[in-house]
Amino acid sequence: MALPVLIIIAGVFFDLGTPASFTASPLFAAAPLVAAPFFSPLYTLMTGVAAVGTVAALHAYNERTSEIPAVTELLTVFTVSVLALFINQVVRRSGEQLASARVVAEAAQRAVLPSPAERIGGLHIAARYEAAQADAFIGGDLFAVQDTPFGVRLVVGDVRGKGLDAVEAVAVVLGAFREAAEQESSLEGVAQRLDRALAREGTRRSGLDAFEGFTTAVLAEIPRGDGHVRVVNRGHPPPYVLYGDGVLETLEPAERALPLGMGDLGSWPDRADEAAFPSGATLLLYTDGLTEARDAQGAFYDPGGRLGGRIFPGPDELLDALVADVRRHTGGRSTDDMALLAVSRPGDRQPERRRTMPVVP
Which of 37, 187, 201, 260 gets the highest tally of CB atoms within 10 A of its CB? Predict the structure, then answer.
């Protein structure tokens, strides 16, 4: 806030310390322009008044008030001060519109992609969504967790494309998943319902998305008291299971399958793969924003190599550490959105996870 005042003071010293042929009017004109985009209308007005008053006082001190150059300088600073007030109003209005747009974007994000509860069906749940673009809230990555009569079912996916078209596809996939997860007796049936929903959505689209719209996804099912997890992978990066002793297992699909929405290229039955998911283990599902994160030398981030041998108290701590590690790896630069979903089966003697508030001295 001192900068406009310092500019005016510098203009005074310049005017008093130089011959009459030199002018400090650029400095006096700059002061309200500096205040306009950063400060309140009142502060901008006061800066403009101070600049105009200082120019008038200097001309009176130098007895040049009636000279044409002096009048021109005074009118120039006055005009720029009025322009600074206009700029201040435009900037403030744009800031209000941006704040409103961010509120709408956050509301849309919560509506389309709500955060799952911390505990569902006896499992501990944590989710993170990291947008590649700063201040962005909506993208093409998705996740959902639902407690069903068949166990806890999960989906993590990545829609092809960006923007509103991708958000529409996310809404279609999540809506179809919530319905199918409750009704379909098998995880394979859920995947086929999602496939058909995206195929129907493609018929309503035009251009490239009508032919090349697809979603990579991995679906998982954790039956109650079974100690296993079933996974259907449709062209998505394979999930990990991090066991309580730090051993990491990659759940590679036995057979590769096309992403959702590409049924026109071929059809074959989905087959769920089954893996052990004992007490104390954590299932990690993610989108390719994690594995395609690069450092300054172009090296990809390797979550398997970074997580192997490490033990975390719970899924929240796992995702916090993972997000922080990716940021260190990329230097804070990201080129793709990243969705993470971690599900832990608590151990036999593991206490319930509770939120705690820090003690403020």
Answer: 260
**φ, ψ for residue 153 (rounded to 5)?**
-115, 145
Q: Answer for the pair 78, 32: CB distance below 8 angstroms, yes or no.
A: no
Q: Rounded to whole angstroms, how far apart are CA atoms 234 and 215?
A: 8
Length of the chain (residues):
361
pTM: 0.69
Q: HSE (CB half, 13 Å, CA atoms) of 79?
A: 8
DSSP 346: -
Tokens of residue 228, six digits:
């296993």
∠ Cα 216 221 226 (to 5°):
155
Q: Tell me which H or E stretch contains 10.
A: helix 3-17
Distance CA 175, CA 152 (A): 17
pLDDT in tens, the chain (361 residues): 889 989 989 988 888 888 877 888 888 999 999 999 999 999 999 999 999 999 888 888 887 777 888 888 889 999 999 999 999 999 988 888 877 777 776 666 666 778 889 999 889 999 998 876 555 556 678 899 999 999 999 999 998 766 666 778 888 889 999 999 999 999 999 999 998 888 887 666 555 555 456 889 999 999 988 789 999 999 899 999 999 888 999 999 988 888 888 766 666 678 899 999 999 999 999 998 898 888 888 899 999 888 988 989 899 999 999 999 998 988 877 767 889 999 999 876 554 444 443 444 3
265 DSSP assignment: G
124-142: burial string, b at 16+ Cβ within 10 Å, e else: bbbbbbbbbeeeebbbbbb
Q: What is the DSSP string of 134-169?
A: TT----SEEEEEEEETTEEEEEEEEESS-HHHHHHH
Euclidean distance between CA atoms 166 and 139, whole angstroms = 7
